[in-house]
Design brief:
By secondary structure, this protein is of the alpha/beta class. It is 36% helix and 20% strand. Strands 18, 23, 24, 25, 26, 27 and 28 form a seven-stranded antiparallel beta sheet that branches. A five-stranded parallel beta sheet has the order 2-1-5-6-7, sandwiched between helices. Strands 9-8-10-11-12 form a five-stranded parallel beta sheet, sandwiched between helices. α6 runs parallel beside α7, α17 runs antiparallel to α18 and α19 packs across α20.
Length: 728
Amino acid sequence: MLGSSYSTRDPDPSGPGRLEPRPDDVDVSGRPLYAAVPDLDRFFRPEAVAVVGASDAEGRPNTGITRQLIAWAERVGARLYPVNPGRETVFGLPCHPSVAGLPETADLAVLLVADPLPVIEQLGEAKVRFAVVFASGFAETGEEGAAAQTRLAQAAARAGLRLLGPNTNLNAFETFREDLTGPAIALITQSGHQGRPLHTLQELGIRLSHWAPTGNEADLETADFISYFAQRPETGAIAVYAEGLKDGRSFALAADRAARNKVPVVMVKVGRTETGARTAASHTGKLTGADDVIDAAFRQFGVIRVDGLDELQDTATLLARARPPAAEGVVVYSISGGTGAHFADLATAAGLPLPTLSEAKQAELHQWIPEYLQVANPVDNGGHPVGDWRGRKIIDAILADPDVGVLICPITGPFPPMSDKLAQDLADAAEATDKLICVVWGSPIGTEDAYRHTLLGSSRLATFRTFGNCITAVRAYLGHHRFTAAYHSPFDDAPRTPSSSARKARGLLRPGTQLSEHAAKQLLRAYGIRVPREQLVTSAAGSVRAAGLVGYPVVMKASGAQIAHKTELGLVKVGLTSASQVRDAYRELTDIARYEGVDLDGILVCQMVERGVEMVLGVTHDPLFGPTVTAGLGGVLVEVLRDTAVRVPPFGDATARDMLRELRGARLLDGVRGAPPADVDGLVDIILRVQRMAMELGDSLAELDINPLMVLPRGQGAVALDALAVCR
């Protein structure tokens, strides 16, 4: 094997059924802070199995399934009991009329019946712990099917058993090679066929420990299996194909458990496009979720998202088998300058660190490589040194560099005997080093001895067929270890009790309405978010007095519960410097409001804040993850550029700063064209205050939009110049 850093786990104590969090392990909104981990040992390794609806009648679908389950039970040492009131024997085994008459309590019942609901209650009375429902026609078919699925889940909960499915298959009962050792891939799929490529990896010597086909997830879901696999000592990586998620918080908690245990989760998540989301929903009845929120949650908890099944298998394999990097530097080594330049170009564009080798190291390499060839990185040996003793010397010298953690050798095509010798040198070097060696075998044939026997025969080499998959996997490998080394669970620091701000803010909410700008700013003030000096007035004379108190120059704006876009209606006047201008502005604003049919609660006379970087902060609700916080470039830029980043609470200071670094316009905060650097610390503080508001007010706050939030020069904080809040 390539070796593993995952030889030990710190599993939670587990007993029968689900491990519920302690009552105090909830955040300020009442949501759980730690993953509930089901004990699935008896699901995957049952001692007794009941097959309800078993058959041996030729031509019936249940017959083939029963035959496969009998073979599987023999392999895993389980006792299998056919259950069918219409048969005395099935494939020579005594058949029982119901689970109540079994000679022992079954750990697992496989239901091969069209209507599983009546059987679930019987299973509960018989103390069966797990059930698998194959039947389809549930949430994937629409509202009526979704209601039937809800009834099925409720029946399972009443019966005290855990249910896999419905709309699932036999993948959990596949053949898993027992002769393979080392860290394994644990596989989770909602569509069974999509897991086939990973299951066949066993034929290449890559260990697969489990396969969980979750189907519609009426009860057991992807998150349950991630939590379970993350604490298994043999798990090197968890590979997931998901069309949707059942619940965002349960997924986040499961991913958090994996991150704590340093177990990589590699995932294909369907639904990036409207077509993909619609098709996925019709297949399993799952919500795909807003893709930007999914991406954000994945980044927060270190889930590695890939697009193709080939990327899933290559990335999961590398992460399962490779030891942690000794260094982050990547060196590209090839027999062709063109190949090296091409690969290095792609790798650099993908963000892989390709350090320039030291002059001393380059001089060492030039002992065996002609002086006219480049060896700074990428390293071009020109071809001939590969054919003799020099080839291994070059590889060993590169690996001896303390700044090098990964050596990648792209071989674009076979050219025996040179390519055979190069492949063997790489395999031999891999056996002698703890550093990662990757080989890209570019031949489309794949039957060459150097590939089939030397490269694939080495459990220490990571072999790929394409440049892209190699780069994706290595980037994920370095990123995973960097992420988990610094990971601190946000759930550990999540607020558990409401703040005094929450009590103030709740008194300002008006259920079912949109607050006026003035009322929305009162909400911000309750959370310590700075707003301009301002007064709400209802007369021209009052506006003049207010301007004198606020201080010229001033901004005047119409304030009303249903005004969302004041600028477009001409309901904002800026840069007013005299009483006469203020008086005229008041009359003009009220005339426009009257003409447009806008109800006002008054006119705001505000301090004018001119110097700073305009940002936007917002809160929205995602159907999967609940409240989310968005930050981005503000003012009109938010609509033109849509340069925003989103995160799912809870999160801390470091994550808030990551949001800002993601923005394409992040340099504006550093100060450009002579502008002073903005107060990023003050901005981060407000992001965290907005997050606290989102968590504490929960569903009561349907939407919050602060735009613009003017971020002042360093040390001066930020001011919310406008705000919109919608109450639920």
